[in-house]
TrEMBL record:
Catalytic site: E141 (proton donor/acceptor), E239 (proton donor/acceptor)
Protein name: Hydroxypyruvate isomerase
Species the sequence originates in: Rhodococcus jostii
Gene Ontology MF term list: isomerase activity
Family according to the record: Belongs to the hyi family.
Alphabetically ordered keywords of this record: Isomerase, Pyruvate
Length: 260
């Protein structure tokens, strides 16, 4: 029997449908729903949809290290918490810096200095305090730098885990994206094992292509078994494209994580 819940991204599935219908389609499958930028959505309609929201983006702009970026991140994190309350969404997702519409960093960084590490940890402590006050959890997501997000500071799984460990707050956890980790680092089961005490959510897609399990090189049933054996009780979310039919993609995702 599985010990975790399953979710899927409404941003990447049922793309021929209006957004609210995507949310309904995922909900009708019995899955939780992930959304990204809430500012582009009809929040009232989402709140009335009956969906159970797993996570949403927890900021609109900003970064972890520059004074103006820190101010923008904290300001928009507060606004995001207000929306999370309306949607009863428990987790709000962050990145090492703001990303543009193509997923590229607004402020690309070639070298992360020791001073930047200290500032980032301090910023994340402030973010965790906001989460504690609101009864929500912020998650810091790892990103791959080789394919999708070159120049993103604190992007690797090792980096995000180090920052979450340094802050050591239950209101700041890691969003461990195994698609990104496979491209950047590999050794996924050992990564899950090491990060487990700090994981707030796990996201998955196959490599290459970022589609559903079974379309690439990652053997997700083995990861599902490891999660069961480790006693993971959080959420596993499909943050991937459908290679063909979205219902077939969700069938493959659910089959991979059935842990029969």
């Amino acid at each position: 029997m599985t010990t975790y819940a399953l979710a899927a991204s409404a941003e990447m599935l049922y793309l021929d449908l209006p957004f609210l219908d995507r949310v309904r389609g995922i909900t009708e499958r019995g899955l939780q729903v992930e959304i990204w930028d809430w500012s582009t959505k009809d929040v009232d309609a989402l709140a009335a949809s009956g969906a159970e929201f797993s996570s949403m983006t927890g900021y609109l702009e900003g970064d972890l290290t520059e004074p103006d970026g820190i101010d923008a991140l904290l300001t928009t994190a507060r606004r995001s918490l207000d929306v999370a309350k309306r949607l009863d969404c428990p987790r709000l997702n962050l990145h090492g810096t703001g990303l543009d519409a193509k997923g590229l960093p607004v402020r690309p960084v070639d070298t992360v200095t020791p001073a930047m590490w200290l500032t980032a940890a301090d910023t994340l402590r402030k973010v965790a305090e906001l989460g504690e006050q609101a009864g929500r959890v912020f998650t810091l997501e790892n990103l791959n730098l080789a394919v999708d997000h070159p120049g993103t500071p604190f992007g690797t799984a090792a980096d995000t885990l180090a920052l979450v460990r340094a802050v050591d707050s239950p209101h700041l956890r890691m969003n461990l994206d195994l698609y990104h980790a496979q491209i950047g680092e590999g050794n996924l089961i050992e990564l899950v094992r090491e990060a487990l005490p700090y994981i707030g959510e796990i996201q998955v897609a196959d490599v290459p292509g970022r589609c559903e399990p079974g379309t690439g090189e990652i053997h997700y049933p083995a990861i599902a078994s490891a999660l069961r054996d480790l006693g993971y009780t959080g959420v596993v979310g499909l943050e991937g494209w459908a290679k063909n039919d979205p219902d077939d993609a969700l069938d493959a995702f659910e089959a991979a994580f059935a842990c029969i």
